[in-house]
Design brief:
single chain; globular; mainly alpha
């Protein structure tokens, strides 16, 4: 458990900078995704050596492995566009609704009926979104950005559920497949990638590919597989204030009081939902 806690802390620090680097580089979302996935997939292949466990793969495992990769690709595509259209903070705030998605996905997939805390949390999070978005209009990039972020959070919430449901598949195979099949999806968009970048942009891509992808996401799969969704989600929410602070001082991103109030409400809503879930489990036990 101590080792998992250390891995969670490392993941937290590395992931907090990801939205900032995505916004900082002029590379478009397709370029970012393709570069990150090529590097990460290659490093996972070399260091994790999933091919050594290929004999353990059965045909019945292919559908969940491909599904994990496609979901990861959708999560990244919408997350990157969310940040580019709006800001690093808006992207991470939209994606942070992942916790509430996880609760209601549990209702549909695991038949775990939401409690009063869950519905109150959903209302608080929606109210928080009202403070962040100045005008709900599709001509408003902030609105589009947060909607894309929310969809990204939905895809991100499905990933730990799939990983936990298919723990019979070796962990190395699941991690490799998540990146490999996501790369296959991104390669369809390669004609729209832009590789005319300056050196500072390439260094940003290197950070996003190695510490931000190979290390952070590999550790996150391990953490979310071993810890309960309640604990892993609470850990994830620490990324939100860290990203907002970094983007404010590094990217000079405006931080009006409305945005701070909205961010606090969204995070409180998610934490309240998980508190209700935790309390319910203790009552049952």
């Amino acid at each position: 458990m101590k080792k998992t806690g250390i891995e969670a802390a490392i993941t937290l620090i590395l992931m907090a900078g990801i939205p900032v680097f995505i916004k900082f580089t002029v590379a478009n979302p397709l370029t970012i995704g393709i570069f990150r996935l090529i590097v990460a997939t290659l490093l996972i292949f070399l260091f994790f050596r999933p091919y050594k466990q290929r004999k353990l793969i059965r045909k019945s495992m292919l559908v969940p492995l491909i599904s994990i990769g496609i979901l990861f690709a959708l999560h990244w595509l919408t997350y990157f566009w969310s940040i580019k259209l709006a800001t690093a903070s808006i992207g991470i705030l939209g994606m942070s609704t992942y916790g509430i998605h996880l609760i209601f996905l549990g209702w549909g997939i695991r038949k775990e009926k939401p409690g009063p805390f869950d519905f109150i949390a959903l209302g608080i999070a929606i109210f928080g979104t009202y403070f962040i978005v100045p005008e709900f209009s599709f001509s408003n990039q902030t609105t589009i950005g947060i909607l894309l972020g929310i969809f990204s959070g939905f895809c991100f919430a499905l990933l730990p559920i799939l990983h936990q449901q298919h723990q019979e598949i070796p962990e190395r195979i699941r991690i490799f497949s998540q990146f490999f099949f996501a790369l296959v999806v991104f390669l369809f968009f390669i004609p729209w990638a832009d590789w005319k970048l300056q050196s500072v942009d390439w260094w940003s891509l290197v950070y996003l590919a190695i510490p931000g992808t190979f290390i952070a996401h590999s550790l996150w799969v391990r953490v979310t597989t071993r810890l309960s969704t309640v604990i892993s989600s609470l850990i994830f929410y620490l990324i939100v204030p860290m990203t907002m602070v970094i983007s404010h001082f590094w990217l000079a991103e405006p931080m009006p009081i409305e945005k701070i109030i909205g961010a606090v409400l969204i995070v409180i809503g998610n934490i309240l939902s998980f508190y209700g879930r935790l309390k319910k489990k203790r009552i049952i036990e």
